[in-house]
Amino acid sequence: MEQNERAFVDELKYCIGRNDIIKAAAVIQSFGEISAKTQARVLFEIFKAPDTIAFPLLEQLSRVQVGAAEIRDKIAELIYEKSYNNTARIVDSIRVKDTKNKAFYVAIAGNLKIRATLPSLGDIILDATDERLLLEAIAAVGKIGDPSSSSLIAPFLGSESAKLRLAAIDALADLGGPSAIKKLCETLTGKSSTDVAVIDALARIQDHQSLEKLAELLSSRFADLRNTAIDRLVTIGPKAIPFVVDCLKTSDDDTVIHCLNILGNIGDLTALPAIVKVIYDDPKNPNVRFAVYEAMERLPSNKSAVSLAQGLTDPVNHVSMAAAKAIDKNLSTILVAGLRNMIEAQDAQSMEVVATLLDSGADNVFNVLLDSEVFQNYAVRHLTERAHPDIVSHNLELLGKKGLGQLVRLVQDKLKPEGVHAVHILAVDDSKTMLKIYMRMVHDMGFAIDAHEYPTKALAAAKATKPDLLITDLNMPVMNGVQLSQEIRKVYNSQQLPILMITTQSDIIGQAMSGKGSGSEDAIQQAGIDLVLNKPFQADDLKNAIFRLLKR
């Protein structure tokens, strides 16, 4: 075998020495069958050869199946090493009409950013019919990066070929600049299969104009555009904050909520002053207030005491719960003093404040306030008279860790035996605060509730044991509420398992505008959702919705 491989190398050297490109090409057809050591020797011999022989042979090897990754990498390295000092050859190979393997040289021109090839690439884009050659030419123009080339690429945004459309989007993202951004944004319809690719392109550019356009999509009536823009802005991170903050000035509450969610998820404290300003402006929409407190929970700071304490007494249940969670993450001397005053006042709000702190899982606050006899009394009352069993178990565990066995026994002695629940409800929401709200409200109704943060786990739980009713959010990662409902309907019909969706009206309309129905009612029916309860809601609203579905 070794002797045969030596003969292989000798024959190749002989062909190269005689400038016999045809026989040399025939020899290297067996390149993939020789050892990696001999392959490396062959590459050395080819690299020493004149460019008129080396280029064609290397191009041929680039298409040969090679097992060793280091050999594949070496072939690519030699191709580009030869090309760096031979750009004229690349230019000529692209310019000549009947050049063999023109796409190979076009790819090199793009990767090496050879500007001199732009006129020839333009000719290819205007005249070529071979899709592979067109794809390489479009990509090369983008990589070379002359912004004036955007008008050459833009027509392919409307191509019938999905590959050419995506290639044009990628190329315009590489080119960047006002013209490319304008052309990309003009293709966004809310219903196109390339919408996500366009938004990804804007996120790649990341200049002032592209970030501004991404932020503008937060007010889009198309849910898919809006949700994709939200995801990309969060991924971009702190660089996106000024543009998202600027959108907080809008009078559209839904856009403000999206902005607050993004700022909270980015998690950079530079956004905190803008978030706090929203709550200082006293928004009337409780969903805005909820979004503020959820964002503040993710941005711990000791500068938020006044607004957080105010949120704890918000008349809307899910807002006060969100404020309680934020307080737990932002706990400071000022906040603790304020909480003590609220509880020690022993007025109509005091009991509700303690209940909210316990139900929200504000463990830091719980531990700090345990030295207050008034707090202890209110906590015992709530745990024995109203709290969900999971909340009771959790707080008894905290009391045990603090060495307060006497309080543990007091609660246990007063607890009523947990009865058998006739109704079992399954709830799913990616907001832990909303899940705790559902637990609180459903338990008050006398029903059992199983809460899940992830739709996939909720789906598995529903398949394993059928609940009597499903409560779901709409916008959730990985699987949204519409997709979850569609999967549930493959197993249970509406009579077997009613589905209650809790979300904002604008989100439902956005789903419909995205092609999931001609209107909000169509979108709901097609997904198998039986009833929508819009935020904000109170306990009675949820109770009425649940009883309406259970009595059908």
Characterise this structure.
With 552 residues, the protein is mostly helical. The chain is built from 33 helices and five strands. It has helices at 2-17, 21-27, 36-48, 51-61, 69-84, 87-95, 102-111, 118-127, 131-144, 150-153, 162-175, 177-186, 195-205, 208-216, 223-236, 241-247, 253-266, 272-280, 286-297, 305-311, 317-329, 333-344, 348-359, 363-369, 373-385, 389-401, 405-414, 432-444, 455-464, 481-489, 505-516, 520-527, 539-550; strands spanning 424-428, 448-452, 469-472, 499-503, 531-534.
Provide a count of the helices. 33
- CATH top level assignment of the domain at 424-550: Alpha Beta
Distance between the termini: 81 Å
Strand order of the largest sheet: 2-1-3-4-5
Q: What would CATH call the architecture of the domain at 424-550? A: 3-Layer(aba) Sandwich
CATH-derived topology of the domain at 424-550: Rossmann fold
Top keywords for this entry?
552 residues, mainly alpha, Leucine-rich Repeat Variant, five-stranded parallel sheet, 65% helix, 4% strand, elongated
Short account of what is shown:
With 552 residues, the protein is mainly alpha-helical. It is built from 33 helices and 5 strands.
What are the SSEs and their pairings?
Elements: H1 2-17, H2 21-27, H3 36-48, H4 51-61, H5 69-84, H6 87-95, H7 102-111, H8 118-127, H9 131-144, H10 150-153, H11 162-175, H12 177-186, H13 195-205, H14 208-216, H15 223-236, H16 241-247, H17 253-266, H18 272-280, H19 286-297, H20 305-311, H21 317-329, H22 333-344, H23 348-359, H24 363-369, H25 373-385, H26 389-401, H27 405-414, E1 424-428, H28 432-444, E2 448-452, H29 455-464, E3 469-472, H30 481-489, E4 499-503, H31 505-516, H32 520-527, E5 531-534, H33 539-550
Parallel strand pairs: 1-2, 1-3, 3-4, 4-5
Helix pairs in contact: 1-2, 1-3, 3-4, 3-5, 4-5, 6-7, 7-9, 8-9, 9-11, 11-12, 11-13, 12-13, 13-14, 13-15, 15-17, 16-17, 17-19, 18-19, 19-21, 20-21, 20-22, 21-28, 23-25, 25-27, 26-27, 29-30, 31-32
